[in-house]
């Protein structure tokens, strides 16, 4: 029971350290999200590499879809397909 008398006064220091560490981890996660949104590399990990590959793939898909939609011939084809679907 003597050890409890030593731990009680040290508890605030432990909780303060935990609070500081938790706040730091939260800021690090926010920084990683910001880097990901800016298109910069996230720290080299398996998840980071996979997210970079997925992001690159999705950007290529969006670029392709933008070309299809903005293409004059593609726009006319889309309009005709939409009209056919409305008639059905």
Structural commentary:
With 88 residues, the protein is mainly alpha-helical. It contains three helices and no strands. The N and C termini lie far apart (82 Å). The relative contact order is 0.05. The model has no long low-confidence stretch (mean pLDDT 83).
What number is the mean pLDDT?
A: 83
* Cα shape: rod-shaped
Order of helices and strands: HHH
**Helical coverage, percent range:** over 70%
Which ranges are low-confidence, i.e. pLDDT below 50, for 5 or more consecutive residues? none
* End-to-end Cα distance: 82 Å
Write the layout of secondary structure elements.
Elements: H1 2-37, H2 46-70, H3 72-87
Task: Explain briefly what this protein structure is.
The chain has 88 residues and is mostly helical. The protein contains 3 helices and no strands.
Task: Spell out the key features of this protein.
88 residues; mainly alpha; 3 helices; 88% helix; 0% strand
């Amino acid at each position: 029971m003597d050890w409890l008398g030593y731990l009680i006064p040290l508890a605030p220091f432990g909780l303060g350290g935990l609070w500081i560490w938790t706040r730091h981890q939260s800021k690090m996660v926010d920084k990683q999200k910001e880097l990901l949104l800016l298109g910069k590399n996230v720290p080299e990990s398996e998840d980071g590499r996979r997210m970079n590959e997925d992001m690159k793939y999705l950007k290529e898909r969006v670029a392709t879809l933008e070309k299809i939609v903005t293409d004059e011939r593609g726009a006319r084809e889309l309009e005709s397909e939409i009209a056919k679907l409305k008639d059905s």
